[in-house]
Specification:
Blueprint: H1 2-42
Length: 43
């Protein structure tokens, strides 16, 4: 039982890490596209 709980907990942690890294990737993409727009406006 304990091993099963540990596996479920590990999957939950991996899922959270994957979700946060996915969100960070989206944030980086949005920030870079925003920076490109700003650069174009300044030029």
């Amino acid at each position: 039982m304990n091993l099963v709980n540990d596996l479920a907990w590990n999957e939950r942690i991996i899922g959270l890490l994957g979700f946060t890294s996915y969100q960070n990737g989206l944030g980086v993409i949005l920030a870079s596209s925003f920076a490109k727009k700003q650069r174009v406006d300044f030029c």
